[in-house]
Design goal:
Elements: E1 15-17, E2 38-42, E3 47-48, E4 73-78, E5 99-105, E6 120-124, E7 133-139, E8 149-152, E9 156-157, E10 164-165, E11 173-174, E12 176-177, H1 194-200, E13 213-216, E14 221-226, E15 231-237, E16 249-253, E17 261-266, E18 277-283
Parallel strand pairs: 1-18, 2-10, 3-11
Antiparallel strand pairs: 2-6, 4-5, 4-7, 7-8, 7-9, 8-12, 13-14, 14-17, 15-16, 15-18
Bound molecules: calcium ion (3 copies).
Length: about 280
C-alpha cells in the first residue's frame, strides 16, 4: 500500500505567494465612455484590523439635522501602464506607476441616519477610459496621516454599465500596516508575510487568519477557505522539496471568487508515488 506524505499548507509552507497577474489588453479602445459614470459601491461592511466596522456617516447627514461622523478614506486607483496594482509608498500614498483617480469616504451614499455602516455607494463622472483597470484602497481613518492600516480590492476592468462592488472584489478588512516592508514583515506572527496575506486576502493583523488547507490524501483533495477577489490553483509535485529545483504542476483551479466560501479542489489523477506534495496558490487580478 502506498503511503502518502502530504505537505500541509499554512505554516507548513503550502502557500505559494504568486505574483500579481498581468492583464494588459492587447488593443486599447480609443473612446472614453462619457455617457455613463463609474458606479462604485461596497455591499458589505469593511472592518478594521480588530474587526470593528469602519466609521463614517453620509456627508450630507447634517442637511437632515443628523450627526455627522467623518468617514474612512476610500481611494479609487488606476492600475497604470505596467498593468499591475503597485504597493503604496511608505506614507500610504499611491505607489509605483499607479494613479489616484478619485476619492470617496465610508458612508457616502448610505442612509444619513447610519453612522457606522462600513459601506458606501457613489458614482464618478466622467469615468476612467473603458480600457483601464482600477482598484480600491480603503484606510482605517479619514486621512492618510491618521491611518495606520489599509486594505485593497482586486482590480476591476472598466466596462459599460458594470458596477464595481469592492466587496465582491475582496475588500473586507483594513489589515495591512502602513509603512512596513510587506515582503519582510509578518506583523501578526502567523507565518505568512504581510505581502502573502495581501495576496491570500487574509487579515495581516490577525494571527488566527491565514491561508491553510486540509488535505485528503486518499483522493487527492484539498479543502480551504477561499476569499472574494481571489482565484486559486492546486499544484502538485512528487519531487523532493529539498531539491534545488522543484517542479510544480497545476492540476486544478477555481474561477475568481466573488464571495468567501469553502473550496474543495481535487487532483483528477493522483499519482501513485510514495510521496506527493500539494500546494495551494492564491492569485489576485
Ligand atoms: Ca501599476
Ligand atoms: Ca502574518
Ligand atoms: Ca494573519
Amino acid at each position: 500500500m502506498n503511503k502518502f506524505k502530504i505537505q500541509l499548507s499554512g505554516c507548513a509552507a503550502a502557500i505559494l505567494a504568486s505574483a500579481v497577474t498581468l492583464c494588459v489588453p492587447a488593443t486599447r479602445a480609443l473612446a472614453q465612455d462619457v455617457g455613463r459614470p463609474l458606479d462604485v459601491m461596497c455591499s458589505t461592511p469593511v472592518v478594521d484590523a480588530g474587526g470593528a466596522i469602519l466609521p463614517g456617516s453620509n456627508p450630507s447627514a447634517p442637511n437632515f439635522g443628523m450627526a455627522y461622523v467623518e468617514g474612512s478614506l476610500v481611494q479609487i486607483i488606476r492600475v497604470g501602464d505596467n498593468g499591475v496594482p503597485d504597493l503604496p509608498d511608505a506614507d500610504g500614498s499611491v505607489g509605483g506607476d499607479d494613479i489616484l483617480f478619485d476619492e470617496t469616504v465610508i458612508g457616502q451614499g448610505i442612509a444619513p441616519n447610519l453612522v457606522k455602516s462600513g459601506r458606501f455607494s457613489t458614482s464618478f463622472h466622467p469615468p476612467p477610459p473603458s480600457y483601464q483597470r482600477v482598484y480600491a484602497r480603503v484606510f482605517d481613518a479619514p486621512t492618510l496621516s491618521n491611518a495606520t492600516h489599509w486594505g485593497q480590492s482586486a482590480a476591476f476592468q472598466i466596462q459599460k454599465g458594470a458596477v464595481m462592488d469592492i466587496a465582491e472584489l475582496g475588500l473586507w478588512v483594513t489589515g495591512i500596516p502602513i509603512g512596513v516592508d510587506l515582503k519582510n514583515s509578518d506583523t501578526d506572527g502567523d507565518g505568512a508575510t504581510d505581502f502573502e496575506e495581501l495576496l491570500a486576502n487574509t487579515n495581516a493583523d490577525d494571527g488566527d487568519d491565514f491561508l491553510s488547507a486540509q488535505v485528503f490524501t486518499a483522493v487527492g483533495q484539498v479543502e480551504f477557505d477561499g476569499r472574494a477577489g481571489r482565484a486559486y490553483n492546486l499544484l502538485r509535485t512528487t519531487n523532493d522539496l529539498n531539491d534545488a529545483t522543484v517542479e510544480w504542476e497545476s492540476v486544478a483551479s477555481t474561477a475568481l471568487l466573488t464571495s468567501p466560501q469553502s473550496i474543495i479542489l481535487s487532483d483528477p489523477n493522483p499519482p501513485s508515488e510514495v510521496r506527493v506534495f500539494y500546494r495551494v496558490e492564491a492569485t489576485i487580478p
